[in-house]
Structures are given as C-alpha cells and as structure tokens.
C-alpha cells in the first residue's frame, strides 16, 4: 500500500487562503494565479444558487477544473451536447453527493463554464453527465446516464493501485481531481541537447526497477527510477524515453494464462492525456498528482539527462463499439474518433478506435496537451506512437501537409523539444523517410533496424543498404533537406526482441501471452548463434556476446541519434518473448543481477557511448581534416572500394574531420559478418600519422584495446563475425 502525502508538506501550503494555480492553461486569456482572495470576494461574487451551491459563470477559455481562492472553476466543451451536469463525489465513492446542472445561460457557444464557491479541492472528486441526440449511424451516442471523465483532467481516480480492480461499477470507473500546481522548479534548467548528440535509453517505468534485484527502496515507481540516476550517469546516456506515463488502465483486458495474471502492462491505452499515471508513484498524491514525476524530471535534467515521453494520440482506451464509454464517446464521439459512413470506428491503431487528430477540436486538444507537459513538467521531447495516424484526414486518407503535424512543428512553446515519429501505423501506412517533417520531425528509422540486423547476422545482399544506414540514411533523409537529425537509429526497442534475445532465439516464443504464439512480429531477423535459447556451451555464448558487442559498436558509430532498450547493456532477456505487452512479471522486468554476471557487456556499452561522445565526426560534419579525406567514405576489403556485390560481407565506413581542439579526428568502422577471418586494407595515411585499433570485438573480453597498438601497415586481419574501430594518431 502507498503512503498518503500529507498536506503539511511545506511545498503545499493550506489551500483555504492561497492561490493554487501557478500557470494558466495554455491559450487562456486569464492568468488565474493573479486572482486574489480579495478579488474573489469583491469582483467574483456568486450570481446564482443551484442545489445549495453558490455559482456564477466561469472562465470559458480555461479548460478543465482550476482551483481558485474560495472556489473551483469548471469548464467543459461539447459540440453536440444539449445539456451538462457537474457531479461531485466523495473520495472512492461510486455515487455523487451533489449534482449541479449548468444553467443554459452558463453556456457560450459550445462551452459550459461555472465557478462553484465554497469547494475545497481535497474534499471532492468530479465527473460530468451530458445529454444529447442518440443516432449511432451518425456517430452520436450521448447518454445522460453515463459519468464522463473530464478530458482535461490533471489527475484521474479509479485505477491508482496497480493491478487492483476497484469495487466500482463501470459507470463511475474514472473521476477527476483538481490538482495543486505549485511545484518549485527553482533555477533548474533543461539540458537542451542537440538531437544529434542525444543517446536515447528507452525504458518502462515500472519494469525498470520492479524486480527484487533492482535494489531500490521504491520499486516500480518514478521514485525508484530516480534512485537509478547514478547508474544512468555511469552508463553515459543523456536522454531517457519513458514508455507511456499518461493515465492508463492496466486492468484493460486482464486475463489469466497458466495461473499467471496478464495485464495491459505497456500502457498504450490512454485514459486521459493530461494526467500522469498515479499507479507509478511511491506515495498517494491526493490533489498534488504529478509531484513525484516532476521531482524525477527535475533530478534527471539537473544531471544532464533529457526526458522524452512516449505519447499515444492515435487511439484511446475506449476501444470500439464493444469498449467502455467514459470520456470522448460521451463528449463528442463523432468529432474525437474517425468513423465510417455508417458510424463505426476506423481501426488504424489496431486497438479498436482511431483518434480524429486533424479535426480542429482534437488538434487543439493535442496541442494544449503537449504544451501543458512542456510548461508544467519541463518535458524535453515526445515520441509519437503510430504517428502516421496523426497525418490521416477525417476520411482516413493520408495528407500531404497534415495540419496537426505542421502546427506542432512550428509551435513556439514546443520550439526546443524533440519531436520523434514512429512513422507507420497498423493500417499499412509506412512513412519512414517520407514522414511530413518541415525539417523539424525526426523518425524512428525502422529501415536502420531491419537492414543492420540482416547485415550483422550475415545475410546476403545487405552491404549497400547497411552502408547507407550507418552514414545517416542519406537515401531516406537527404542532408540538404532533412540534415542529420532526422534518423533515430535503433536495433531494439520495447516492441520486439531484446538485444540478448536477438542472438539467442531464431524465432519468437510468445506462448506465455496466451495466443498460441500467433502474436508478435515474425520478421525478426534474429539468429540463435547455433542453439535456441539458454545454453552452457561456451563457444555459443562467446559468439552471442560478440554479436551483442558488434551491434552496440555499429549503433554508436552510426550517424543519426542512437537509441537502445534498457537492459540491453547488461544482457537482459525476455526469454524469447518479442511482444511482452501483457507480461507484468520477470519476463518484462529488468533482472539487475545480470549487470554483474554480464559486466563485460556493460563495460563495452559504457565505453562505446563515451567513444561516440568523444568523436564529433561520427555525429555530424566538421571542418575538413588535414588528410583531405571526405567527411564520410565507404570501403570494402580494399580501401576506397565501395563496389558492393550481392555476397559482400565486409563493410568499412570512415568519418573524418577535426575535433573541438582543431586536431584531426578520423574514425574507421570495419564490419566483418563473414564466418572466416578477413584481411582488410585501411585507408593510407600521411607519414605523420598512424592508425591504432580502439575496439576489436574479435578479441573476446579484451574487445576494448586500452594499450596503443601502432599499425605501421595499412592492413589488419579481422576475426570472423567481428567489428573493428580504428582511430588516427599523430606521430609527434
């Protein structure tokens, strides 16, 4: 059970006499924090009494519920509702203790707004009831018997205890709380790291520390992640990408398979876009939800680590006609969701419904939401799940200039944040290399994953494609149009095999998911190195470790922004499960005991991350080096030969320029995916310079070469299935 945060916290003064809003809702014409108690009494006087409550028209441009000295402002917009009723609940109650209908003259246009006097925010939760036409064939399904969650709610009740169904009817599953927004950021500054310099570490907040081996005091929480900041700094990453932390219902589709309870663990089923997931906190944060998350973000930023949120604006947890009815369905179903001509739901998300992102109302809500997270949580970036959906029109057709994507690209509040698209959707739209960008959007480069995976395991026909990926995919992102900040390079992410499993399993093993191993991707481009699954064979294990190092070295020596999955750096396994979305257990949780067991892998990752940071020529073009080499060049077994043929299994890429001190900085990456040794030729250097190997994964646990080895000859023998990284030194 969680401990309840006490109101005696010095950061949270008593609410009776203190303004509780520190930042107005984005787009608001009113600065609510400037309203004093005196002004409430002198200027904002009650005009009506409804069911025993003093009320007056509210602030129509401030969406959601906002605390004022002496009262609360409630604002809700609905295009088609004919009436709206505010419901007040005692905490954890399923029935309202008060109902306050909005008078007709409290509605301006499609907006209902009302100040209710005398409310104390820690004494109630709230929801709405709306009435309107019921014509399902037109997408109109208003139902005045349903309780509707405020889409702008800053905190949501109903699923705050992880994995526990509350004894509550479906009708009142979710309610909202009003939140104090007075977190003191002090002089904390965001890192504002250029995209090309980021090293992104994708993690699941719960799974990162939930395992007993994590050694944290608050496992599975924001606080638990904060305890791991020293580890993240030691590793060297400078950006964490958090899988969904918006409020979601992990109990959605809860089922039991072979005695194990399966949940919607990943969280790609948003309930509310403005509210943090309360089950990720170590303490219950009544009316101060978000405090622990803000402390985490502040601490990460102060340690030079950016925070990127994985956001899901392509669908919601309401699903299709068979799904629950708790928010947008009752608000404006025909506006918020893409509907077929007969009123059914388009399903380009694979999750039952598709958010109608380019409708002006939905577009504004998404923009308001992202601004809210940037202003109030100091978020540094967003990764958009199934982002191609965000570029579909209301009739589902792809758009050449999607209004939503364009408005996000040019929005001034979002001007410094990273915008990263997963440039495909479940409806077959694949836009890697063609996602509308305005030179602002980056993309998860799925072609990098596929081409590099295939080449590294020795498949024929991939040398030329792999060369393009390592050089920043200029065939997909022309430097003169997209620069070198468009490609987020990755070999692993939450969706698929871990890096360890990529070289331990040739096929997926998702039997624990309960779908007879039919779920998850079949095109994994993985290789078990000679044996499927766990083995004590030392030769196979040595090869697996070498393949992991090969993948790490290539990723860190590729132009573009590298990203890898948490736990890859110490050989975490999901036991062959490549779709662990429902596994809230040892399959998904990071086993930190592997950090010590596989220390060799961790040290290699740490070295390669530092190596990348030390060599700016990998990340982008600099001034030319003194040797006259081009910024990037391709090589085969012979230097300067890039005539790759179908069975080419060696690839060399050289980066050259100068470093921050003005000295030549030249890095050569050689990849031998052949199963035999190869003698390669390095590019010849002036007599004043020489090559030294920095990394050779063919040397086993001595892959990182700490003592300088001068290569007087421009030849080098590479062991089978190995990666070589060389750098240039001056003789003087």
Strand segment tally: 34
Mean pLDDT rating: 92
Largest sheet: 8 strands, parallel, barrel
Low-pLDDT segments: 3-31
Give the helix proportion (percent range): 10-25%
Net shape: elongated
CATH superfamily of the domain at 3-176: Immunoglobulins
- Cα-to-Cα separation, first versus last residue: 65 Å
Pfam family, one: CBM_48
Domain Glycosyl hydrolase family 13 catalytic: 202-612
GO molecular function, one term: amylo-alpha-1,6-glucosidase activity
Organism: Eisenbergiella massiliensis
Written description of the protein model:
52% of the residues are buried. The chain starts with a strand and ends with a strand. The chain is elongated, with a radius of gyration of 28 Å. With 732 residues, it is an alpha/beta fold. 19% of the residues lie in helices and 21% in strands. It has an 8-stranded parallel beta barrel with strand order 15-16-22-23-24-25-26-27. Strands 2, 3, 4, 5, 8 and 9 form a 6-stranded antiparallel sheet that branches. Among the domains are: 3-176, Immunoglobulin-like; 617-730, Golgi alpha-mannosidase II (Immunoglobulin-like, Sandwich), CATH 2.60.40.1180. The protein has 16 helices and 34 strands.
